[in-house]
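Worked example 4.2. Below are the chains of a multi-component assembly; read each line carefully before continuing.
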Amino acid sequence: MDKSELRHWYDDSVPCRSACPADTDIPGYLEAIYHDDYELAYNINFNDNFFPEILGRVCSRPCEKACRHSAGNNGDSVSICFSKRAAGKYSTTKKPRLRNTQKETNKNILIIGGGVAGLAAAAELRRHGHKVTIYEKHKSLGGMLNQGIPVFRLPRQIIEKEIKQIIDLGIKIKLNTSISNQNEIEQLAKQFDAVVCAMGTLKPNILDTQFKKNLYVEDGLDFLLRVNEKNEKYVGKNVIVIGGGYTSMDCARTAIRLGAKTVKTFYRRKEGDLEILPGELEELVNEKGKMIFSARPFNLVENDGRLKYIELVKTKTSNINSKLIDIPNSKFKIKTDHIILAIGQKQEIKIKNPSENIFYAGDFKLGASTLINAIGDAKKTAADVNKFLMKKNFYKENYSIHKKVKTNRSLEKNYIPITKMQLRDLSKRTFKAEVELGFNKAESKKEASRCYLCHYKFEINNNLCVLCDECLMVRPVNECIKEISSKTTDSDGRVEFNKIDPGNSHGIYHGELYIDPKVCVRCGECEKACPTGAISLTKVSKINAST
Amino acid sequence: MRQPKFKNINVTCPHDCPDTCSLVVTVDKTTGKAIKLKGNDKHPITKGFLCNKVNHYLDLVYNKNRVMYPHVRIGPKGQKGKFKRVSWDYALKLIVKNLNENIKKYGPDSIQPYSYSGTLGMLGYWGMSERFWNKVGAARLGRTICIAAASTAGIYTYGAACGPAIDEVPKNDYIILWGTNVASTHVHMVPFLEEAKKNGAKVVCIDPRETRTSIMSDWHLQPKPGTDSALALGMMNEIVKNNLHDKSFLKKHTSGSEDFIKNELPKYTLSYVSKITGLKQADIKKLANEYSKAKRSYIRPNYGLNRHRNGGMMTRTIMLLPAITGAWKYKESGCFVGSIEEMWNVDLKKLQRPDLLKDKKPRSINMVQIGNALNDKKLNPPIKHLFVWNSDVANCTPDSSNVRKGLKRKDIFTVVHDTFWTDSCMYADVVLPADTQLEHTDLHAPYGHYYFSLTEQAIKPLGESKSNQDLFRELAKYMGYKEKCFKESDESMIKNMIDSKHNPLFKGVTYEKLKKNGWVKGDVNNPRRNYLKKGWPTKDKKIQIYSEDTKNIGLGAYPSYTEEFKKSEIKKKYPIQILSPATHQFIGNSFVPVERLRKMASRPTIEVSSVDAKKRKIKDGDLCKVFNDVGETFAHAIIKDSMLEGVASTQKQYRGSLVKNGLNANALNSQELTDMGDGPIFYTVMAQITKV
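Applying the procedure described above to all two chains together yields the following structure tokens:
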């Protein structure tokens, strides 16, 4: 296969990796865990996404939706995220190594913003050998890590450990340094060879002025920051949370822990539209939070500056234009004394026509997004910065093929059910106690063994095939091996095939057998069954900047 | 102790294929149903895998197209499906009544049995049936339709002495697959070829067509069909010219070599052979050189060669190549056309009881010419009762329109015993249900290797199906035959065949060992088989380069090349030779009722050269008429750049009822016989192809 064919094969075969904005070598690290090599598993992640133990807890895990288990109707996806956490826990590496580092250059780059995007860009630029400085407006690095995610989901010592690993790559830090407008940025752009704006989205969306004015209505991120960092733990008795994203879950569960009598979360859309992690809603409900859908805030009922009620109106999707509309005559009141708004944020600074050495990364570019999106974007930005400075591409897409390999797996491993994450007992869920307890070694190995290791390639050489049907008879899923009348590869490297139309074709003798990488579950039964050695096994590695 | 729910039974594949695989069938004891069928991974030839046909054998056993019960026809012969179910008692009484009437009126020669190889079990093929027909005194059937020419060629040249089987292939350096598409018809040879290749061997494929086998081989040579003797003789001439022939072997072990080399060979120059075969001189020279220089060489010709008018001579000539180079000196090397002449050497007197004939001397009808026999108004006595079993006469004989015309005769009483509703059933007065391999016990003597095997009954016969053995036992009973031999059990008949005095291969083989393992290897190293030491089983114990036998039938004493077509047969209007070799999906006409297989070959096809197709404006997939003065058939074109101009290849014995006009490629050929052995000349046919 040439490179373009390999690219298509790899994207079709390893959709988890394609779904990861940071191009994490997922089958690579799951295979490492399967072979008890936690060091390798951790190192792969450190190089691809920089924050394995953090992401291994709170990543939005787009990879799991793409996992060929669930996406292919083959059961639950592999717990890719939690496996990453286990890699961190069991790796004995004291100081993880950045791979593929280049010679030190004389380029000086400033990164404004020390959240995950800024830190990821910094690390990637250190790989390229450049000098990197970070200006952070807060008193500590981490951005949303510290300010947005509660301790019971992400312990602070994990954050400290993984941020330190990045800084130790040789990055200069200036804390409590805020930049407030484009002019300042332009000035800095004259002093540095390049500037990366990674300031995130800290400006909260607001409802109308009535909500804005009341002292007992606060923005979700403000609530989380004061509670987690400033130790200001006031919470109302009947808390209302507005929103359907990660922050609304965090706010509601934090409010419960602080002692609110009731916590009700209202989301204007439906349950299927929530942008949260699997299990979060269930735990909110277990922890006695309530979630109500299809209702949006309409009005406040105040009394002397204090809240009495929030008035909401029910919503539905319009039949005409599929937009969200209010249902007439559906207003209702809920008693409340504390409202937390978790309805999204925007960038604080607007930049127009920036100089050519100013770049954007993370939420500042994308709008409020997820950690992994920010990290992935930051890596791309770093590559752009490097190309701008060095006038050449650092990374060239490449694949390498390994022969004489074994998967060391077998068909029955494909039927292992998903490993459940152990949760802390409800009665013991204090403000700080981490709820998800992590996999132990046996659990992480078992979970990793579920991965098909889709980077293994089974292929039929039709010149050796005698069409005996032995492989067809051991197929564990429909159509992993297809009988096709012809197969073409277009100039782009994409494989197209025509399945044999029984009764309307020359038949299989004049056709060929094709292992469809999008359906093949890598069980290896066909290779075992083939009497003529027509089925071969190779392993494909995708080479990226951090390989 | 809890009884296990499943049991495994050793079964042998009954079909007409040299591999004759050993199978393991798993039966659910609670339902009596066979639920799994797999190749026996302990058998050194089967190696645990089956072909694409037999992998679906259970779909053949449990198939809704099975006859299941006796039927009689209502409505005219030849039309589809008007049959009425009757009891066995009724059917047998009807048959026996007709037999007796015709024997009385016309004599037993008017009774014509017709069978071949639906099963190759030693009992099912020619056991109780032959006892019955011997007692009846019925006409004989010359069972020549497959290997007669090649087998005769072998006997004339080496006597009944067969070469090393396919499990010896890996020890050879140079392997020639001559006229054989092993990927489709002999698939268990492939792993041996791969092993040989890993050991550094070169595999050459000589076949006018490109096949999956030729693609797998190291070198593919495409001589014109019917010219293989010339190629073999050209090789011999080249070998002798370069002094690479084994003079001492020739002197010690062959007769007639001196004269042959001096007077017959020299005319087969490279230029002459190149002209005949269409091959390049350099290629013929290279083949001769490589073959003769290889220390251990192995030629595997197959029966496609013997389906030509000059097929006997072609096989004989090729078989003599290892005599020229002395490759026979190595017991793993030489030439293997199959092992049937030795493996099927059982005491037929005991098995078939020809003594029951008493003093009757029945005539013999060659099955190739059944069409002539059915239509010949001068045949005395005429055929009045045709009893067909183990065969689909309507599809598998040459000149099939003529055959079907004969089958349609209103004054013939026809019985067909078959597992399925074949095309032949449509001409039957009575159709009797046959069973499948899972439903009886038999002994198998493979023709591709030397491992005898026993197949044991795994399930009860479905419906009212009867095995061939039981059918003829019943017929004998209804005829009132009192002889004990008609009651002899299958086990007893099998045991009586295992006689090492009669056949040295049976040394060390016992019924008990067969029952235990499913198979036992014949004694290939028996000193009686050491032909190099003891001499060959010919009249002077030597390999017959000079053959009195071929001389006596007018072919000359020495191997030679004769043209396949007489000058008068080459007509401008019929410029394409139509080959009809075995297909990948079926074995002869068997397996057609298996849906998965039929769907993968559900339209008749013909491989045509791109040159011929272009001239006729035929595009890939177009339905074409293939015709000559004898008849016509229809097939969809598969256009191949690799096909020789003037040659086309369609499917062997394709089920006629699936073709537009109800006839397959056998509508085009004739009932003429081969140069030796009186076999059929299926491939000696010229026709025209036009787009429909």
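Take a moment to check your reading of the output against the notes. The radius of gyration of chain A is 26 Å. Chain A has 21 helices and 22 strands.
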